[in-house]
Structures are given as structure tokens and as C-alpha cells.
Amino acid sequence: MIQKYPVGIQDFGEIRNNGYLYVDKTQFVYALTTQGKYYFLSRPQRFGKSLLISTLECLFLAKKELFKGLFIEDKWDWAQIYPIIRISFSNIGHKYLGLETAIDRRLEEIARTYEITFSTQTIGHPS
Fold it and tell me: The whole model's pTM is what?
């Protein structure tokens, strides 16, 4: 069976669930999650940053079925689920809302998802 190339697809779950070609990089993902403390990911456009973040999200949400047959499958603690807060600055609407308002709105959406109540209503500096 010839596998399809995931051109333009940045969602790990979509790639794995729909039979797209996936080059297993979970050995590096495992090292990233078990070694070191802080990372700054800086790469050119179209270099795979969004797919990496999507892979990490699926991993931390313990979506074990997506990792079947991959390096990390038998090395990860699938019983542990971590809360994920993912903010993509490419689609938060900062171009027409302004950065601060766009971030405020995205944080409000995340807060509703996790049923979190803010003690203040804005990310700006207190008056």
C-alpha cells in the first residue's frame, strides 16, 4: 500500500488516523520530554514546529492509540494525563483585534474549557 504524504497537515492525530506517511521522530520527542528543563524552538517556516507541538499534545493527553508501533509506545507512562494549554499565535486574530485583546480572548476560551475563573479580567498592567 502506498502511503499518502501529509503535505500541509500539522495535526499528529490526523496523520496517524488517516494513514499518512509519518517518519517516527518520537525517540527525539521522548528525549525532549525526559531530559533538560526549558527549550526554545526556533526553526524556519514549514520546518515542522506545529507538528511537533501537536505530537507533544497527543502524548501529554495520553492518546496511546496514536503512538502504536512508534519508538515511544512502550516507554511512556500512558496512565498519566497532563493538562494542555496550547496557544497558536498564527490564528488568534491579533492582526485585526490587536495582540493584547487576541491573547485575552484566547485565554478566556482556555479558562472556559478548564472551568477556571480569572482573578482579573485583562492581561495588561494593573492600573
Answer: 0.80
